Amino acid sequence: MAGIKLSAKAAEEYEFLESVLKRCDHITALVEQYAGANKGADLYLSQMTRALAQIRQQAMIKNLGFVADHAGMLGVAAGRGSQMQRSRTIREGSIALKQLIERTMKAIVETDKREKGEKEKEKEKQAASGSH
After folding, report:
1. 27 with 52: CB under 8 angstroms?
2. pLDDT tens-digit series, residues 32-41
3. Which of 55, 32, 34, 54 lies closest to 43 in space, CA to CA?
């Protein structure tokens, strides 16, 4: 977020989404360990589903329902199928979640810039009408 000036609410959402991206990287690492595990694979699976449940819960608190929905669906899908199917599902789902988060972060920055521009125009109009 270096060099980006955001409003307080936008900055909070942006930082939350950055932390979710880091957790997605962690989930991706767990998926690879899970896919290659012969014994104790359930340990990795439980860590992934727990992380996805936490992302879902925190996204709901932050009013980012679409992120919460995606994490929730991925968590449910992680419990279905064979180990190979689960690995593929979680791997592809975490990539899709990362893309969703990156698009959302970009939209937050653009929306905040647009809102700031509108406020500046409004201030200029008030100043111009006040001087006449």
Report:
1. yes
2. 999 888 888 8
3. 34
> Distance between CA 35 and CA 131 in Å, rounded?
69
Return d(Cα 21, Cα 26) in angstroms, integer.
9
Read off the tokens for 79. Answer: 């419990």
Is residue 119 within 8 A of residue 79, CB to CB? The reply is: no
Tens digit of pLDDT for each residue in 13-52? 999 999 999 999 999 999 999 988 888 888 999 999 999 9
With beta carbons less than 8 A apart as the criterion, state whether 72 and 55 touch.
Answer: no
Tokens of 93: 């789902």
Question: pTM for the whole thing?
Answer: 0.81
Rounded Cα gap, residues 101 and 124, in angstroms: 35
Task: Say how far residue 120 (Cα) sits from the centre of its chain.
Answer: 30
Of 36, 66, 29, 35, whose CA–CA distance to 51 is shortest? Answer: 29
Q: Which residues contact 38 (CB under 8 A, 6 or more apart)?
A: none
